[in-house]
Amino acid sequence: MSLKPLVWSIAGSDNRAGAGLQADLLTGHDFEVSVSTVVSAVTAQNSSGVSAVDAVSLDTLSAQLESLAIEQTPKAIKIGMLANAEQLRFVADYLASLKQRCDVFVVWDPVMRASSGDSLAGESLAASAKALLHVVDLVTPNAGELSLLSGMSVNDGASLKAACQAMLAQGCTAVLAKGGHWNLDGEALDYYLDAQQELLISSPRLDTAHSHGTGCTLASAIAATRAKDYPIEDALILAKAYVNQGLRLAEAQGEGTGSVAHAGWPTNRADFPRIESAHSKIGQWFGIDNNWPALAPFASCDTLNLGIYPVVDSLEWIERLLELGVKTLQLRIKDKRDAEVEADIKAAIELGHKHQARLFINDYWRLAIQHGAYGVHLGQEDLLETDLNAIADAGLRLGVSTHGYFELLRAVQIRPSYIALGHIFPTTTKDMPSLPQGLARLQRYADLVREYPLVAIGGIDLARAPSVAQTGVGSIAVVRAVTEADDPALALEQLESALCHSHENGNPSTGNGLDSRFRGNDGIARGNEPVCHSPDLACHSHENGNPPTGSGLDSRFRGNDGVARGNDKSQREEALCPKD
Ligand SMILES: Cc1ncc(COP(=O)(O)OP(=O)(O)O)c(N)n1
Ligand SMILES: Cc1ncsc1CCOP(=O)(O)O
Ligand SMILES: [Mg+2]
C-alpha cells in the first residue's frame, strides 16, 4: 500500500496530454499524491480540435474500478469527462455504494466541451447529471456548464449566484463556479458556495491562449489537496495558485495553443489569489455577503523577530516573566466578563510599559484600547466580531492567528503587525478544531509570507524549537514549555538560545548565514536586523552575558553526533503531523 494519499481519476484520455487523465497524473505528482486512473473514453485531439471520442463499455469501466477498489480505496476522487449518460449513471451508483464503505471526497469537473469548443459528451448528459450531483462533494462548472446543469442563464454575478443556489437546492453539496471565461476589471473570479459559506476568489487574468487543461488541473489539484487533508478553503487556494502558475508558464504546443504547465507545488506569492470581501469593488459587484474588514495597515512591531513569546493566563505570570527579561508576551485569560479581568489587564499593561515589553492582550480588545496596550491578539472568528478600525486608530498592534493557506492570505489582506501560524504540533493546552500543521507546512507558509513577523505556536518544546526556528519564523509562542517547566527561567533561556542558534546559522535555503527574510527579491540583505543583535532582545540571554550553551540545546536532546533528537513524546506526537 502506498504511503502517499491515493486519488482516483475517472476521466478521458487526452492524447495531447494537456488535459484529462494525463493532466491529473501530472497534477497528482506535483502535489505528492498517488493517482490511479479509470479511463472513461479515449479521445483524439490536437490544438485544432477533437477528432474522435471512443467511450469504453460499462463492463470495462466497472472492471477498472473494481480492480482498484480490491486493493485500496482512495481518499479523493476526481471525475472528469464521462462520455455518455449511461456512464454517468453507472458512476453515480458506484460512488453511492463506495461512499458507504469509505470516507472519500469526490470532485466532479463536468466536462461537456473541450476548451477548443468541441462538444465532448453531448448535452443529454445534463439530464443524467442529477444523480451524480447527489453523490459528489464538489462540482466545478464553468459558466456554460453551470448554465447547462442548473437550467438557468448565467450572465452576471447575480445570475451566477442564483444558478449555484439552484444547484445546492438540487442536492449538490458545494459548487465552485469557475470564472476563467469572465473578465471583470481584469480579474478571473471563482465563486464557491456550500450550505455554510460563500467565497469569492480572484486573481488577475493571465492573458494566455495556452490554457488547455485548466479545468481538469484545477479539479485534480482540489482532489489531491483534499486527499492530503487540507480543508476545502485551503484546497481551493492551492488549486487556483497551481493553475495560475501553470498558465504563467504555459507554452505553445506544435502549431497551435498549448496546455497549462505542471510546475510543482505553488510557492510564488504572485500566483496566489485574493479572497474578496464585501468591501472590495469586486465583492460589491458580486454582492458577496461577508463582514471581513478592509483596513489600513496596523502599527508595526519594528522587528521581524519577536523571539520566544510566552502566552500566560495570569498577572502573576506576566510579572514573573517581565522580571526575567521577556520582551514579547501575551496575557490570555479565557471566558471571563470584562469587569472580572479589567484590573489585571490594566496592571499587566502598566507593567509591560514599565519593562518596555511588547505585551499583547488576547481577546479583550476594548480593554486593551482603553488602557493603552502595546497590542492585541485575535483569532479568526474574533476578527469578524471586532472593530478592527478602532484598534488601528488607537495605534495598537494586531497579531492574528492562522491555521492554513486560506486564513494566512486573509490575514495578510488586513495587514496585521504579526501573523501566528498554528497549531504546529498536537497540544493539550487548547482544543483545536483543525489538525496540527507539522513542520513541512510551516515551512511553506513561512516561505510564502516573508514580510511579516511570523510566530509559530502549538506543542513547541525545547526538543522541537530548533527545527521550528529553521523554517525562518522569527518567533515561537509557548504555553506549557514555560508554565510547566521545573525552572521557567532556564526553559526560557534554552528556548531563546535554540531560536538564536538556528537564526545565527542562517536559513538553510540561503546557506550564507543570513535569514532569507532579511533579503530583498534581488537576494541582497535589506538591513542589519540580524536576529541575535537586534535591540528587541529576542536573544537577550546571550547579550546579558549568560553563558551560551552552544546550540542552546540541553544535552539530553542530542545524540552522540550532536544532532538534536526529539524526546519520545515529541517523536510520537510528530508522527501525527502531516509531512508534506
Ligand atoms: C501567538 C498566539 N497565536 C495564536 C493564539 C491563539 O489565538 P486564538 O485563535 O484567538 O485562540 P485563543 O488563544 O483565544 O484561545 C494565541 N493566543 N497567541
Ligand atoms: C493558544 C493556542 N493557540 C494555538 S495552539 C495554542 C496553545 C499552545 O500551547 P502549548 O505551547 O502548551 O502547546
Ligand atoms: Mg482569541
Mean pLDDT metric: 86
Share in β-strands: 15-25%
Share of helical residues: 25-40%
Major pleated sheet:
8 strands, parallel, barrel
What does this structure look like?
By secondary structure, the chain is of the alpha/beta class. It has two domains: 6-180 and 210-276, UDP-N-acetylmuramoyl-L-alanine:D-glutamate ligase (3-Layer(aba) Sandwich); 307-509 and 552-572, TIM Barrel. 37% of the residues lie in helices and 17% in strands. The chain contains 21 helices and 18 strands. The protein has helices at 20-30, 58-71, 85-101, 124-135, 143-150, 157-169, 214-227, 232-248, 281-286, 315-323, 338-354, 365-370, 380-385, 388-393, 405-413, 438-448, 465-470, 480-483, 488-504, 540-543, 568-574; strands at residues 6-14, 34-46, 49-55, 76-79, 105-108, 138-139, 174-177, 187-194, 198-204, 274-275, 307-312, 328-331, 358-362, 375-378, 397-402, 418-421, 454-457, 475-478. Strands 11-12-13-14-15-16-17-18 form an eight-stranded parallel barrel, surrounded by five helices. The chain has a six-stranded mixed beta sheet with strand order 3-2-1-4-5-6. A four-stranded antiparallel beta sheet has the order 7-8-9-10. Helix 15 (405-413) links the parallel strand 15 (397-402) and strand 16 (418-421). Helix 1 crosses helix 7 and helix 3 packs parallel to helix 4. Mean pLDDT is 86; it is low at 114-118 and 507-566. Bound molecules: the ligand Cc1ncc(COP(=O)(O)OP(=O)(O)O)c(N)n1, 4-methyl-5-hydroxyethylthiazole phosphate and magnesium ion (MG).
Summarize the SSE layout with pairings.
Elements: E1 6-14, H1 20-30, E2 34-46, E3 49-55, H2 58-71, E4 76-79, H3 85-101, E5 105-108, H4 124-135, E6 138-139, H5 143-150, H6 157-169, E7 174-177, E8 187-194, E9 198-204, H7 214-227, H8 232-248, E10 274-275, H9 281-286, E11 307-312, H10 315-323, E12 328-331, H11 338-354, E13 358-362, H12 365-370, E14 375-378, H13 380-385, H14 388-393, E15 397-402, H15 405-413, E16 418-421, H16 438-448, E17 454-457, H17 465-470, E18 475-478, H18 480-483, H19 488-504, H20 540-543, H21 568-574
Parallel strand pairs: 1-2, 1-4, 4-5, 5-6, 11-12, 11-18, 12-13, 13-14, 14-15, 15-16, 16-17, 17-18
Antiparallel strand pairs: 2-3, 7-8, 8-9, 9-10
Helix pairs in contact: 1-7, 3-4, 5-6, 7-8, 10-11
The structure holds the ligand Cc1ncc(COP(=O)(O)OP(=O)(O)O)c(N)n1, 4-methyl-5-hydroxyethylthiazole phosphate and magnesium ion.
Magnesium ion binds at residues 362-363, 378-379, 382.
